[in-house]
């Protein structure tokens, strides 16, 4: 502690250099904390998938529909207790930037399969009996200020669903969830009756995918195989997987997101390491004579090395704390930004976790230590007579 | 003027048959060659000689900031040869006060903090360190400049702060390498008077390297070095 004033004074010696190094370090840490939080949120969202539900889609791609009669055949597979037909409508509300997820489904069975979608009974009944009715998530309702009874139009971007006019809908229900019991439940989507879509398209469309409820999650693998075996030799083979695997597939469309983001983080961290190491090297080189004087006064090589390392560590700590502080601010603002906020809205408790903060501080300390190591060794090895000879 | 050697009962510095050889690439440079020197306790000794004669090398060996190639250096009763680097550093902090030609104050520390610097290695409390440093500054006549930084001091004032730093730990031996080399005549006189004060009033043993014959006259004993060999 008694050497702290000496360390601080050396950092203030060239405060512009110190400040820019601290800022560079803070950029590294804020990038790590922000990216890691996004990765954590995406991974968390994957956990929203239920182990007791399977998803069956076209083997090649979700883009291709399944025949209508597949529903009955899947329902007959041992272990399957309920089947729901679904389709991605891809509807646009006035402007593409107003994007929100909208699905066609079978209302009664959908609510049976998805207990996390909670509606008052009267709203359920209204939806069951209204072909043009829809239910929307609480956050979606807040976003557009929609209430029960409001109407709106969606026009699909998917060619088979374009019928020459928009589809109009009535808000029959606003659903919510128990976030403690069902974390990760999406409250930004809209669901409407599949029959509305089927009839409006003159019964020419198929099913986007089927969702199955199974009797025992432990049998998920066997039941999935059995379902796919049913259609193995048909024109439209299927791929059946757990809902979690299905959701993970969407993330995988963006490539290996974790690898990408971690790669970016590593590259930035390495660059900052070089910047900080360069700063420390210059600082130590400027003070060679001073190091000689300290050693003459009786400062041991080990103490000189410790002083230099402490300077580097302090830069790391200051940069780390600043980076964390800015990251907290950014993560608070991100959900407010249109489009980005919509994606993040499905992730409850989106924010800097204690674990990510601790890792961020750890990285800052490690970078400081690594950056200060070689300059500290230079100080350790400096010979008094040679350093004092320098002018 | 050669001073008479006082009949001191203890020897502060003993250099016995010391050789120092520097290796520069493939060249071996013999700087000191079988040198012997005794400095009695409480004496003020000047080492003179032409450039390259080995004066500063000898001073560095006495101060414990360099090592002999052969021979023995004993200062304040301690044979420096067997000491490890860490032991030597600790020994220096207690027994040596070094005064440099170019002052070598730490620019980011004010005068008081510079004087206090060697005391950071002691177990004194902050208050005790400050008190000692202020006392040292008072002795050199600069207590009113305690909060000033080196860039705010004249050359003579900087050297006085450096002297205060050298004496604050109450060392056994003061070693001075051309302490007036970078000063004007008046400042040089002030510094030499200060050093005489530390020798006569505080009984500090002083070994001073100098080119300046006028500075050398302040010492009691003068030794001449030429090509690594000492003569009186």
Order of helices and strands of chain B: EEEHEEHEHHHEHEHEE
In CATH terms, the superfamily of chain B is: P-loop containing nucleotide triphosphate hydrolases
The largest pleated sheet of chain B is described as:
6 strands, mixed
CATH topology of chain B: Rossmann fold
- Count of DSSP-assigned helices of chain B: 7
Strand order of the largest sheet of chain B: 6-7-8-3-9-10
Number of strands of chain A: 10
Could you say which structural class the secondary elements and strand pairing of chain A correspond to?
alpha+beta
Distance between the termini of chain B: 11 Å
Second rung of CATH, namely the architecture of chain B: 3-Layer(aba) Sandwich
Instruction: Tell me, briefly, the overall form of chain A.
Output: elongated
Q: Which pair of chains forms the biggest interface, and how many residues does each contribute?
A: A-B, 24 and 27 residues
Low-confidence stretches of chain B: 1-8
Q: Give the overall silhouette of chain B.
A: globular
- Output the number of helix runs of chain A: 15
Q: Strand count, sense and closure of the main sheet of chain A? A: 10 strands, mixed
Q: Which secondary-structure class do the elements of chain B indicate?
A: alpha/beta
Rg over CA atoms of chain A: 30 Å
Q: Outline the low-pLDDT stretches of chain A.
A: none
Mean pLDDT of chain A: 89
Describe the protein's architecture and organization:
The complex is a heterodimer of chains A (391) and B (232). Chain A has a 10-stranded mixed sheet. Chain A has 2 domains: 178 residues, no CATH class; 177 residues, no CATH class. Chain A is α+β, with helices and mostly antiparallel strands and 391 residues long. The longest helix of chain A is centred in the C-terminal third of the chain and has 33 residues. Chain A is built from 15 helices and 10 strands. In chain A, helix 2 packs antiparallel against helix 10 and helix 12 runs antiparallel to helix 14. Chain B is of the alpha/beta class and 232 residues long. Chain B has a single domain, classed as Rossmann fold, CATH 3.40.50. In chain B, 31% of the residues lie in helices and 28% in strands. In chain B, strands 6-7-8-3-9-10 form a 6-stranded mixed sheet. Chain B has a 4-stranded antiparallel sheet with strand order 2-1-4-5, covered by helices on one side. In chain B, a hairpin with a 2-residue loop joins strand 1 and strand 2. Chain B starts with 10 loop residues before the first strand and ends with a strand. The chains are: A alpha+beta (391), B alpha/beta (232). At the A-B interface, helix 1, helix 11 and helix 15 of A face helix 2 of B.
């Amino acid at each position: 502690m008694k050497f702290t004033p000496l360390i601080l004074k050396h950092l203030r010696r060239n405060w512009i250099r110190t400040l820019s190094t601290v800022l560079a370090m803070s950029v590294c840490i804020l990038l790590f904390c922000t990216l890691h939080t996004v990765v954590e949120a995406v991974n968390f969202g994957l956990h929203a998938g239920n182990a007791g539900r399977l998803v069956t889609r076209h083997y090649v791609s979700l883009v291709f529909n399944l025949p209508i009669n597949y529903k009955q055949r899947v329902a007959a597979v041992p272990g399957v207790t309920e089947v729901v037909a679904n389709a991605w409508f891809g509807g646009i509300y006035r402007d593409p930037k107003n994007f929100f997820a909208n699905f066609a489904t079978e209302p009664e069975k959908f609510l049976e399969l998805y207990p996390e979608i909670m509606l008052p009974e009267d709203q359920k009944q209204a939806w069951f009996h209204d072909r043009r009715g829809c239910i929307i998530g609480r956050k979606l309702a807040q976003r557009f200020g929609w209430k029960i009874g409001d109407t709106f139009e969606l026009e699909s971007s998917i060619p088979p669903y374009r019928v020459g006019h928009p589809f109009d809908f009535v808000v029959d229900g606003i659903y919510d969830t128990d976030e403690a019991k069902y974390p990760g439940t999406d409250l930004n989507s809209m669901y409407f009756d599949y029959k509305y879509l089927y009839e409006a398209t003159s019964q020419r469309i198929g099913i986007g995918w089927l969702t199955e409820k199974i009797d025992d999650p432990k049998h998920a693998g066997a039941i999935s195989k059995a379902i796919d075996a049913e259609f193995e030799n048909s024109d439209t083979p299927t791929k059946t997987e757990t809902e979690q695997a299905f959701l993970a597939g969407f993330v995988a469309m963006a490539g290996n997101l974790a690898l990408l983001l971690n790669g970016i983080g590593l590259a930035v961290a390495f660059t900052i390491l070089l910047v900080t190491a360069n700063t420390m090297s210059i600082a130590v080189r400027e003070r060679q004579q001073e190091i000689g004087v300290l050693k003459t006064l009786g400062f041991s090589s080990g103490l000189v090395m410790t002083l230099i390392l402490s300077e580097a560590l302090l830069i790391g700590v200051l940069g780390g704390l600043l980076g964390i502080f800015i990251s907290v601010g950014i993560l608070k603002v991100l959900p407010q930004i249109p489009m980005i906020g919509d994606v993040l809205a499905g992730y409850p408790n989106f924010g800097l976790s204690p674990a990510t903060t601790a890792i961020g501080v750890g990285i800052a300390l490690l970078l400081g230590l690594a950056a200060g190591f070689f300059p500290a060794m230079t100080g350790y090895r400096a010979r008094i007579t040679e350093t004092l000879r320098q002018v | 003027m050669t001073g008479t050697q006082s009949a001191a009962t203890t020897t502060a510095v003993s250099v016995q048959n010391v050789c120092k050889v520097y290796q520069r690439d493939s060249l071996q440079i013999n700087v000191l060659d079988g040198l012997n020197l005794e400095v009695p306790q409480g004496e003020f000794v000047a080492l003179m000689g032409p450039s390259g004669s080995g004066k500063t090398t000898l001073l560095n060996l006495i101060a414990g900031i360099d090592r002999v190639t052969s021979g023995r250096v004993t200062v304040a009763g301690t044979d420096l040869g067997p000491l490890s680097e860490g032991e030597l550093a600790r020994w220096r902090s207690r027994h040596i006060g070094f005064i440099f030609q170019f002052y070598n104050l730490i620019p980011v520390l004010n005068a008081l903090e510079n004087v206090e610097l060697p005391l950071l290695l002691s177990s004194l409390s902050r208050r005790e360190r400050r008190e000692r440093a202020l006392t040292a500054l008072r002795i050199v006549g600069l207590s009113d400049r305690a909060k000033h930084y080196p860039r705010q001091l004249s050359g003579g004032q900087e050297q006085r702060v450096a002297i205060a730093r050298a004496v604050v730990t109450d060392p056994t031996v003061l070693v001075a390498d051309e302490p007036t080399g970078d000063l004007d005549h008046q400042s040089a006189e002030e510094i030499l008077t200060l050093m005489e004060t530390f020798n006569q009033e505080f009984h500090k043993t002083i070994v001073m390297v100098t080119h300046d014959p006028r500075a050398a006259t302040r010492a009691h004993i003068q030794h001449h070095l030429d090509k690594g060999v000492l003569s009186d």
